[in-house]
Design a protein that fits this description.
The chain is an alpha+beta fold. The protein has helices at residues 5-18, 21-25, 52-64, 129-135, 139-150, and strands at 28-36, 48-50, 71-81, 87-98, 103-116, 119-125. It has one domain: Nuclear Transport Factor 2, Chain: A (Roll). The chain is 34% helix and 37% strand. Pfam families: SnoaL_2.
């Protein structure tokens, strides 16, 4: 029997905590879409990954420069079932640490996950990009990147 959306969400959370791009990507169908709703300049114009291998490559690249995972835990996780058995909505808080300063902080997220035949086929990620960038000491860099990306 294929995994349910809720089981896939649990495995998604574990892959994020493990900081494993491979475990994360393996949850997705071959032609899945991972969308980032809130724009960040370092992801380029599309703000999404198309297909399992692009998801894998995107997370490998994003996490490659990080020596220790900043995500230390998840809490206040609430899962909302929908009228569509393929779709669940998850909201929660991420406990994160800035390893340069040693300072912990909390950021919020919301995910809309669609699963079919035991794989995630679409994930919409509404993570709080600004709070996370600020907590990691990267807000100025994020604004500089955004300014450069919007310049004619």
């Amino acid at each position: 029997m294929p995994e349910t959306p809720r089981h896939l969400l649990d495995r998604f959370h574990q892959a994020m905590l493990d900081f494993s791009p491979d475990s994360l990507a393996d949850l997705f169908a071959g032609e899945a879409v991972y969308e980032f709703v809130f724009w960040t300049p370092h992801r380029g114009p599309s703000q999404r990954y198309d297909g399992r291998e692009e998801i894998r490559a995107g997370f490998r690249a994003a996490w490659a420069s990080v020596s220790r995972p900043p995500l230390t835990g998840l809490r206040e996780v609430r899962v909302h079932e929908t009228a569509d058995a393929e779709v669940i909505i998850c909201e929660g808080e991420m406990d994160v640490v800035n390893h340069e300063t040693g300072r912990p902080f909390t950021s919020r997220y919301l995910l809309v996950l669609r699963a079919r035949d035991g794989r995630i086929v679409h994930l919409r990620d509404y993570s709080d990009v600004l709070r996370t960038a600020a907590g990691l000491g990267r807000l100025t860099r994020l604004f500089d990147q955004a300014h450069a990306a919007s310049a004619p």
